[in-house]
Each structure stands twice: as structure tokens, then as C-alpha cells.
Design a protein that fits this description.
23% strand; globular; alpha+beta; 506 residues
């Protein structure tokens, strides 16, 4: 991505911001200058661990090691930029949880990933009762194993040693941002930001603090939780394990989806974005007052700036970009991701085939953990190309289900729609999203836009940017997709989609 706006800076010299984007699949590190230009990046993938059906884990120690390796590679190519780095910003997969030793930071078990479903039995125990209503009222979220609280319940029930250490305070818990900050500061800072805290089911979204009643509902005894600092704050200092000649501030910490919303400059109600990743997150700014949806859409803290919260509607779909990986790695339908676009365009339509990507259950707006993925409409005339096209269309249908409900429940029209993440490279998918939403779609040329949002936040924290008005002046490169499909065709396709969703939910 190349930015062309001249941002106001604290000094005339070129200022660089290092950024970490710790995602489900990999750890990416980047260098931005003060004009939001991406100078260079490096990435290291980590292992996806599947100990049992429905379980997904990461080795947090491997993630930290990969971070340092990627940073070392980046420094080797950009020594001058590293020497002039003003801060380090962090964005991360939000709901993945790590339990680690106080002092050393050593993980006491593998990180339990947001995709993991092992907490579902405990969630089922809560549903339909007063505790479920309390959780939803205070957090703005749903009782679902997507969020880490129930997975911590499972861990403490099945690992008494970890439970005892959490109770005594000798073990700490955190989302990935907390874990990385703790390691990068040598155990000096145990902190998170509101965007990550609000995804745990332990955080009161109106009062903006941890809530003891919520912790008790999940049967947990936790001696210590991370300090919560605003995203545009300083979170200690780091020298990146000796890679830097002197420590720099860790400034700007945001969960990946909110960071993308921030980078897109969606600062007004009705502005929305889709982050296409392993799963997808749709966020719509709804302003400074929380609005509740009765249709499967949850609330989120978009950010907190100067003590003032901005709220959003959020809809999470569990398995969207990962559908492309599934078609490649599990089914051998494509040899590489970009082939999916070519195959989809090789047929005039989906041939009546619908693929519902519910491989790990359905997220918003249905929230059915028990549902499995399915393909409907197979006939002798169906080809590999039809199935691949149906896979891409299924991704678009799932996020559009969310967008349609958001617009209705927010009571404000969808002003504009942005997209980011790796799948934005797929022009067939982006055009289809624009078509079925009947909205102009702005797809970022920087797939990993979350890192830029964290960098913007870090720049605000240390004074590179005076305020968010300055951020509006920075131009970023996007590809615009205009809707082309006839309304009648859109409704025909959605009618077919609605029928298969009804079948899979029955």
C-alpha cells in the first residue's frame, strides 16, 4: 500500500512505526512510515494443532519465537528504519487465550484458539437461564464457545494444576496481545486494551471494566487479570530481545477487527467493513450509544479514545477464508488460492450448487455450534468449477446475511462498505460481495490492514498524529467494485441460499 497524504508529525524527520499482526495462521511484522506507507514486511507461519475433533491450539512459545525471527529478517533488510523506529504497535487474533507463568511468561499449555469448540458443553449449561441473560446484558456478546471464557472453564476443570495456579496468582491469562506484551517487556507489563478485553466474556462493555460476577458465572477463580489501557496508549518498552539498540515504546494495541475498522477510518455511524480472514468479521460503527440487536448480532467496542467509547455491531462468521484453504488442502479442488477465481469465472453461474461453510458451526446471525458444513444441489452436470464457485459465493452469502441484519437493527443506512484481509485479492469474491449487497465495495490494497490500524493508534499515542482528523487526510490505495448484478438475480440467488440455510438449521 502506498499512502499519499502528508500527515502532521511530531518532528520533521522521517518517523517509522514497527507493527506486529499476530493472526490465526501466522505472525507478520511490518514497517510503516508516518504517511502510512508500508515499507516492508516479513511473516512466519505457525503450526495449527488439532488434538481432538473440534479442538484447535497454537504453541504460544512458537508464536513468540516466530515474532523475533520475523523481526530479525525485517531488520536485516531495513537497518536504517529500525534505527529510527518510534514505537512498536500490536494487533492480534482476539479471542485466542493463553495461560502463562507469572515472571517467566512461559506458557503452561497450548493457546486455545477462537475456532476451538471444547467449551460448548459448558455454554449449553448456561443457555436459557439467568446467567446467560446476565452475560449478554453486560458484555453485549452471546454465550458461545467462540469467546474464551468457556474454554478457560474447560481448562480449569480438566487441569487442576493450572486452576490452582490461576487461583493463587502464580499463573496469568491473556489474549495474544497480553502474552506478547508480557514477553516483550520481560514480564514488566501485564496489560491489554478494551477491544481485546471486551471479547473475553469477562468485561462490562458499558462500565468499561472487568466484572467479577461474569468471572464467577464461568466457575473461575482468577487472582489477577490484565490492566486495561486505551488502545492509543503506551504499554511499556521493548528492545525486541536485543534487536534494537535502545528500547522503544509499545504503543497502539488493538484487536485485529477493530484495528481494521480504525484503519478504514470508519469513524461515523453507518460505516462498515468486512475483514476476510480464516473467519470473517463484519463491523459497523453505531456511534457512542450501545444498540442491542435481537437478531444474532453482537455488540463490540470499536475503540475507546480519551475515555469515550465508540460502539459497533459485529457479526462473526467462523470459516470463510479458510474455505478456500479447505478447497485447496483438503479436497484438492484447486492447487493454489488464486485458481479459485479462475475456476469460478469459467462457469456462468453456480449450476444450482450452494456450499454452506459451517465446518466449525455457524456463527452470526445463527449461532449454531452443532451445524456442519454442507453442499447442496449436486447433479451429474456439476463440475469442479461449480463447487469452487459455490465455495466463494458461500463466503459472500454468510457475510451478507450479517450486513442485512445490521443495517436493519442499527436504524441507519449502510453508508459505505470496506473490505480487507487476504481474500480481497480474489476479484471474483469482491465483485460478488458488491453485487449482492448492492453497494460500492472499497477493497484495501493492503491485505493486512489491521496492522495499519494499530500503527495509527500507536501514532496517536506518541504524538506522531495529533488527532483522528489527521488520519482522514492520509490517502490509502483501494480497488473499488461497483455493483453490476440485476436486483432480480440477487434475490434469486438469495432465495436459493435461504432455502439451504433453512434445511441445514432444521
Amino acid at each position: 500500500m502506498r499512502g499519499s497524504g502528508a500527515a502532521e508529525t511530531a518532528e520533521d524527520l522521517v518517523t517509522y512505526i514497527l507493527a506486529i499482526d499476530q493472526s490465526t495462521q501466522s505472525t507478520k511484522v511490518m514497517i510503516f512510515n508516518h504517511s502510512a506507507e508500508l515499507i516492508d514486511s516479513a511473516s512466519k507461519a505457525h503450526e495449527q494443532i488439532f488434538p481432538s475433533p473440534g479442538w484447535v491450539e497454537h504453541d504460544a512459545e512458537q508464536i513468540y519465537a516466530n515474532l523475533l525471527t520475523a523481526m530479525s529478517e525485517l531488520k536485516a533488510r531495513n537497518p536504517a528504519a529500525f534505527a529510527q523506529a518510534a514505537c512498536l504497535s500490536v494487533t492480534n487474533q482476539r479471542e485466542t487465550i493463553v495461560v502463562f507463568e507469572k515472571g517467566s511468561g512461559k506458557p503452561l499449555s497450548n493457546a486455545i484458539v477462537w475456532l476451538d469448540r471444547r467449551g460448548e458443553p459448558f455454554c449449553a449449561e448456561l443457555r436459557g437461564g439467568a446467567d446467560e441473560r446476565t452475560v449478554e446484558k453486560k458484555t453485549g456478546l452471546r454465550v458461545d464457545t467462540y469467546f474464551p471464557a468457556s474454554k478457560l472453564t474447560w481448562l480449569t476443570r480438566n487441569n487442576p494444576a493450572v486452576a490452582a495456579e490461576l487461583k493463587s496468582g502464580s499463573a496469568l491469562i491473556g489474549t495474544i496481545d497480553t502474552y506478547l506484551i508480557y514477553r516483550l517487556t520481560g514480564g514488566k507489563v501485564y496489560a491489554t486494551d478494551p477491544t481485546n478485553a471486551s471479547r473475553t466474556l469477562f468485561y462490562h462493555i458499558d462500565r468499561l471494566n472487568w466484572d467479577e460476577e461474569l468471572i464467577r458465572i464461568f466457575g473461575l477463580e482468577i487472582a489477577e487479570l490484565p490492566e486495561i489501557r486505551e488502545s492509543a496508549s503506551v504499554f511499556g518498552e521493548t528492545d525486541l530481545n536485543g534487536l534494537l539498540s535502545k528500547p522503544i515504546p509499545i504503543a497502539g494495541v488493538m484487536g485485529d477487527s477493530q484495528a481494521a475498522l480504525f484503519a478504514e477510518r470508519c469513524y461515523e455511524p453507518g460505516m462498515a467493513k468486512i475483514t476476510f480472514g480464516t473467519g470473517s468479521s463484519v463491523l459497523m460503527n453505531i456511534g457512542d450509544k450501545r444498540i442491542r440487536s435481537g437478531n444474532g448480532i453482537v455488540n463490540a467496542l470499536a475503540w475507546v479514545l480519551d475515555g469515550k467509547p465508540t460502539y459497533a455491531f459485529e457479526g462473526i462468521t467462523n470459516f470463510t477464508g479458510a474455505t478456500i484453504s479447505w478447497m485447496q488442502n483438503r479436497m484438492n479442488l484447486i492447487e493454489k488460492p488464486e485458481e479459485s477465481e479462475t475456476l469460478a469465472r469459467s462457469v456462468p453461474d453456480n449450476g444450482g450448487v450452494y456450499l454452506v461453510p459451517a465446518f466449525v458451526g455457524l456463527g452470526a446471525p445463527y449461532w449454531r455450534a452443532d451445524v456442519k458444513g454442507a453442499i447442496f444441489g449436486l447433479t451429474p452436470g456439476v463440475t469442479r468449477a461449480h463447487v469452487v464457485r459455490a465455495g466463494l459465493e458461500g463466503i459472500a452469502f454468510t457475510v451478507t446475511d450479517v450486513i442485512r441484519i445490521m443495517e436493519k437493527d442499527a436504524g441507519v443506512p449502510l453508508k459505505c462498505l470496506f473490505a480487507d484481509g487476504g481474500p480481497v485479492r480474489n476479484s471474483f469474491l469482491m465483485q460478488f460481495v458488491a453485487d449482492i449487497n448492492r453497494r460500492e465495495l472499497h477493497a484495501s490494497s493492503l491485505p493486512e490492514l489491521s496492522a495499519l490500524g494499530a500503527a495509527f493508534s500507536g501514532g496517536l499515542a506518541i504524538g506522531i498524529y495529533k488527532n483522528i482528523d489527521v488520519l482522514h487526510k492520509i490517502n490509502t490505495s483501494v480497488k473499488v467494485y461497483e455493483p453490476k448484478m440485476k436486483d432480480s438475480e440477487v434475490e434469486k440467488l438469495f432465495s436459493g441460499w435461504a432455502k439451504v440455510i433453512h434445511k441445514i438449521l432444521s
